[in-house]
Write a structure and sequence with these properties.
about 575 residues, alpha/beta, TIM Barrel, Jelly Rolls, 2 domains, 8-stranded parallel beta barrel, 8-stranded antiparallel β-sheet, 23 strands, about 25% helix
Length: about 575
């Protein structure tokens, strides 16, 4: 890569069909006309953005440009994630053709607004290939119907008084973006030293940068043609979670020279030169894409999601590059979104890795506050931990918090969603109930079993029965095969509304459990029988026909199981 290469000749994005934009979102597309719909000319400039950024006493913050008051983003990630390849690939279908549900979007946005939330983070290209995704399945450019749906969602946000963070994940495989650059000589030139285009070359190689620039130009211009209300967009994230492969070129190379287009030559044997080369190349990526966004929306706030990579689980194939501070110091961005592993991580450790004065002059948010069910199996504890973790993060100057995610999915190891239980997490973090996210509040407890005394038929030396009701993810194990039982004293007569039992079981297989209520008079009544194939981490939630009053204890009996009998957590929920 000794010489600067000419930029690839790019095909224009096909013009969208604008005729159907005047129809309600739920109506079928209008019939095609003999002649193409005329394009509006000129496209009006975006309205003035309500949210801007400023520096107050050396610290960056968002603020309301009308009232002058500080603006603190609080809300959720709204996604419709579906498993495409079991255990390997999940895609988001919020905007998809055939999967778009504007009624559900409006219901969710209205629900958030009612509780005082002000921001929703959306991911517009987590679906990378197929008719429901953003790329045009046949031909070049973007899917017109998908773009129509984006505009509908933006208008719903405007109606509900919400602001949006629009986060990019990956250039779609459809739309011929990758194909156009694969045949250009700048794609081949120098990839040995800068990494393949679907690895580090995506950010560091001029072909990767040019491909993304064309994608963003298509996106912004096509949305403008649809008169998208850009003013509802708090910010555009060039990448929802930026990171580099530490074990791929050029990061993996310990010697050799690399020359960036139009830039200096770097000696990879010199650690500092290597750091500088990575920073310079990544900054070129940021500058190029930010400029493209502002071509259409000059007042747009632009940021990126940054993962504190040293805290990620090690991966021998694709370990993540952790040295991002040099990028933050000079990045041409308006805000940062810090993508953290979850509430189980020590904040001081994360601060030492990433959170430093490097970004203090610009706002920084936690865009994916994640409370993993596997680590925090009790919803009551999850709500408390979320409040604690957010309040603790205030000490590091964070400017906003968005929960991953709005919905609650049933997968055993997924995160708690805002709608888990009876909207428990949504209510616990709601600005209407907790005006200052940095000040914790007393939360109601719905789990009658939490922290109560427990006894069992038998227990392992390190797995006492109390661990099934401590909310930590530690388990009770009988250290023996079925039949076994565990009994939880509720501390007095209670009215039981529902049950939730988190399985601790290996290997998976057929199990048979019974849940009994022990009443005030000493008698017992069968609440539920659970039979079927169960796996580790699965939550069993038997349905009670009606609340059961006068219950002083709950007894769970396991009659059959392929493993030693154990429970990770047992929740006895109060009737609401």
């Amino acid at each position: 890569m000794g010489n600067e290469q000419p930029e690839p000749k790019l095909e224009p994005t096909p013009t969208a069909d604008l005729a159907r934009l005047a129809l309600p979102a739920t109506d079928p597309p209008a019939a095609a006309s003999a002649a193409p719909s005329p394009l509006p000319s000129p496209v009006p400039a975006p309205e003035v953005h309500r949210i801007g950024t400023r520096v107050v006493e050396g610290a960056g913050e968002f603020y309301d440009t009308v009232t002058g008051e500080a603006f603190v983003p609080r809300g959720a990630n709204y996604v419709d994630v579906r498993e495409v390849v079991p255990g390997q690939l999940w895609e988001d279908y919020v905007f998809g053709a055939g999967t778009f549900r504007p009624d559900l979007v409006r219901e969710a946005f209205h629900h958030l607004a009612d509780y005082g939330y002000n921001t929703v983070r959306l991911h517009f290209d987590l679906c990378v290939q197929g008719p429901s995704c953003i790329g045009r399945a046949v031909g070049t450019g973007l899917n017109p119907e998908f773009l129509d749906h984006m505009v509908v969602v933006m208008n719903i946000a405007a109606d509900e008084g919400l602001h949006l963070i629009m986060a990019a994940g990956r250039v779609p495989r459809d739309g011929l973006y990758w194909d156009r650059f694969a045949v250009h000589h700048t794609f081949e030139e120098g990839l040995e030293s800068l990494g393949a285009l679907d690895e580090n070359g995506y950010y560091l190689h001029p072909a990767g940068i040019a491909m993304q620039a064309q994608y963003w130009r298509d996106l912004m211009s096509d949305l403008a043609l649809r008169r998208a209300p850009f003013e509802v967009v708090l910010g555009w994230e060039l990448q929802s979670e930026f990171w580099l492969h530490a074990r791929k070129p050029p990061l993996s190379l310990a010697r050799g020279l690399v020359t960036l287009p139009g830039g200096p030559t770097y000696n990879l044997a010199d650690t500092e030169e290597k750091r500088l080369m990575i920073a310079d190349a990544t900054l070129a990526w940021m500058e190029s894409l930010a400029a493209v966004v502002r071509e259409t929306d000059p007042e747009a706030l632009v940021g990126i999601g940054v993962a504190p990579s040293a805290l990620q689980s090690p991966n021998p194939v694709a370990a993540r590059y952790a040295d991002v501070v040099p990028l933050l110091e000079v990045a041409p961005l308006d805000f940062f979104d810090l993508i953290t592993p979850g509430v189980d991580w020590d904040l001081a450790r994360q601060a030492g890795t990433l959170w430093s004065g490097a970004w203090q002059a610009r706002p920084a948010i936690l865009g994916q506050v994640t409370i993993p069910r596997g680590l925090v199996p009790s919803l009551d504890v999850a709500a408390v931990r979320a409040q604690e973790w957010i309040a603790d993060s205030c000490a590091y100057g964070l400017d906003g918090w968005l929960v991953w995610e709005y919905h609650s999915r049933p997968e055993p190891e997924s995160a708690w969603g805002m709608l888990s239980g009876e909207d428990e997490l949504l209510q616990a973090l709601a600005p209407a109930n907790q005006p200052d996210a940095c000040v914790e509040t007393d939360l109601p407890l719905y789990n009658l079993a939490l922290g109560r005394s427990a006894t069992a038929s038998s227990s392992g030396a390190k797995t006492p029965p109390e661990q099934a009701v401590d909310g930590t993810g530690a388990m009770w194990s009988a250290a023996d095969a079925a039949p076994q039982w565990i009994e939880i004293d509720l501390g007095g007569p209670q009215t039981v509304g529902s049950l939730r039992l988190v399985v601790a079981q290996y290997p998976p297989g057929e199990t048979h459990h019974q849940v009994w209520a022990i009443l005030e008079d000493g008698s017992s009544t069968l609440l539920a029988t659970m039979e079927g194939y169960t796996i580790q981490g699965q939550a069993l939630e038997p349905v009670l026909v009606e609340p059961v009053p006068g219950v002083r204890a709950i007894r769970v009996e396991t009659l059959e199981s392929p493993s030693w009998v154990a429970w990770r957590e047992i929740e006895v929920r109060v009737a609401e």
